[in-house]
Amino acid sequence: MRIITIGSGGFMVLTAVWSFAHMGLAFVSLAFLLGIAMLIQSLPEIARFFTAEVKYRRSWTLAEGVLTLILSVLVLSNQLVTDAAVPVFFGLWSLFTGIQRMAAAFDMHERRSAHWVLFMIAGFAAAAAGVYAFLNTILSSLPIAMILGIIFLIQGANIILTGIFMPRKHANKQHAAEAK
């Protein structure tokens, strides 16, 4: 599951790079690739809910996975018809996942995980990108492809971070066997 998670995060990062490289394209031209990247991200998150041994992070993972799956279907079915709705749509997604990661970081802190600060920073970055997407037209009017590239880059980094620090099943079973 670790390799699949890191791979899906890597695909999100590559999607962000592609979005940056094609900044002049309209959202309609980017939508299919972005929807596929979201779909690829959502499936391992949903699967982690059923396979995770660390119970306290399961519900956060399922919530993010299901939301991302639903939103990917909306993108793939071409439901975002105006360019004005795109930054709000993806901003809301980034804001939700950022808040979700910050809440998960607090859970990690309560369980004395050494990596909770990294997850808090990653969650804050995602939430900040989401808020920025809402305020883009007021602040600087960046092209939609650049905003989406930033959001997908942060989301990809978050998923890679999750994959890197995902608890190892074999290590947990080995420690349990040694404790007996």
Which CATH class? Answer: Mainly Alpha
CATH architecture title: Alpha Horseshoe
- How many helical stretches? 7
What is the subunit arrangement here?
single chain
Query: In percent, how much strand structure appears in the residues?
Result: under 5%
Q: What is the terminal separation in angstroms?
A: 27 Å
Tell me the count of domains.
Answer: 1
List SSEs in N-to-C order: HHHHHHH
General shape:
globular
Quick overview:
This protein is 81% helix and 0% strand.
How would you characterize this protein structure?
Helices cover 81% and strands 0% of the residues. The protein has 180 residues and is mainly α. The chain has a single domain, classed as Serine Threonine Protein Phosphatase 5, Tetratricopeptide repeat (Alpha Horseshoe), CATH 1.25.40. Helix 2 packs antiparallel against helix 3 and helix 2 (27-51) runs parallel beside helix 6. The protein is globular and about 45 Å long. It starts with a helix and ends with a helix.
How is the topology of this model organized?
Layout: H1 2-21, H2 27-51, H3 58-76, H4 85-110, H5 116-139, H6 144-164, H7 169-179
Helix pairs in contact: 1-2, 1-6, 2-3, 2-6, 3-4, 4-5, 4-6, 5-6
